[in-house]
């Protein structure tokens, strides 16, 4: 029996059983093409191993040494990469337009070049004069980086074949187009095809390829998401536009820990590293005030202290506002519900605002207790002791669960001049932290002890 053909839409990627002029998933015309299965006839194998062969894992370990890494000298970047750049790796750097991706990568290209790598920066967005102007502004005008302005994938691959760089930066993947794919640059199939060609080029030729991808707003689907699974490392560059802090976060890394962050500050002369993020995030903190709580968090392998700010005010609305910046809105709703159901502290009729200072985004459940503390402190108009950090996970029953790496959280807090902490009971900590730790079994005890209510 002949195999059924499969068709897919160039614009949205939806699969169809038969061809039609219009995709009923996204409504685009003339975007449906047949997906041809990969032929299994004799062909070259791009990964270099013998065709169809496999070898024992133990042999592989002796045959290949761990890849030599090259550091850029930008410690915050090297950390996020897992200790430096791995040859032949494909890296995606995603982020909102204008957040500073091109700036970061031009600085990285120059740093890698100064450390002996042959770097090439290919811009599909800016003319060479513009890139040169930026380089001048960054003080990198004489850096040994080659510059290309090109969007045709075939020409780019030809350039890379000829130049044989160690690292190639492609800015951005959304501007690249392969002439064998019929749709416009930036469409799902173009982004996917370009990413596929460039990542397989990286493996084949031993070139580290960095793809820049804009996170697109709703309605445009060809964001970095469609290439995340093709690359070895996915980094996101985040931050609030109005703030000078920028955070480079590893969300996937085949060669290092994920969830690692690097902290930068956007200045008039480019991005500068922030080696002690806690000090920076707390630098704007004034006097202890109701609603402000310092959370001792862990980002990747390192502890980071951040200030959480809450505001609770009577609401004129029938559905009070719940506004969160830097944390998960669903998690906030959960904590409000636990406070109400387990401790009898209602937030009905009250607007609640929660903000993580400095443009930082937190995803750790360990922030639960600090959030509850900030909310209660704002609601009761009572400040939490100013020299105290807070952390711990809250369960739906209102019990407090200990969290990992208590000791490093306490050490960092001590280093920054804090003398006390509020944490769940059974938290595993060393005896020599020099911190006064108040251990709480559940939220009710916490509310009673700290706020004298509940
Ligand atoms: P850019 O790297 O072009 O962002 P992306 O590539 O992510 O779109 O950065 C643009 C912003 O950075 C722009 O608003 C200006 C600012 N900027 C500085 O503040 N200082 C600098 O030295 C540079 C080069 C840019
Ligand atoms: Mg850019």
Protein model, in words:
The chain is an alpha/beta fold. The protein has three domains: 35 residues; 206 residues, Rossmann fold (3-Layer(aba) Sandwich), CATH 3.40.50.300; 172 residues, Ribosomal Protein S5, domain 2 (2-Layer Sandwich), CATH 3.30.230.10. Helices cover 26% and strands 25% of the residues. The chain contains eleven helices and 21 strands. The strands form four sheets. Strands 6-5-7-8-4-9-10-11-12 form a nine-stranded mixed beta sheet, sandwiched between helices. The chain has a seven-stranded mixed beta sheet with strand order 15-16-14-13-17-20-21. A hairpin with a 6-residue loop joins strand 9 and strand 10. The longest helix is centred in the middle third of the chain and has 18 residues. About 2% of the residues have low confidence. The structure holds thymidine-5'-diphosphate and magnesium ion (MG). Magnesium ion binds next to helix 3.
Could you give a quick summary of the protein structure above?
Helices cover 26% and strands 25% of the residues. The protein is built from 11 helices and 21 strands. The protein has a 9-stranded mixed β-sheet with strand order 6-5-7-8-4-9-10-11-12, sandwiched between helices. Strands 15-16-14-13-17-20-21 form a 7-stranded mixed β-sheet.
Please mark out the parts with pLDDT under 50 across 5 or more consecutive residues, or reply none: 43-49
Small molecules bound: thymidine-5'-diphosphate, magnesium ion
Q: Helical amount among residues, as a percent range?
A: 25-40%
CATH architectural label of the largest domain: 3-Layer(aba) Sandwich
CATH topology of the largest domain: Rossmann fold
Give the name of the CATH superfamily of the largest domain.
Answer: P-loop containing nucleotide triphosphate hydrolases
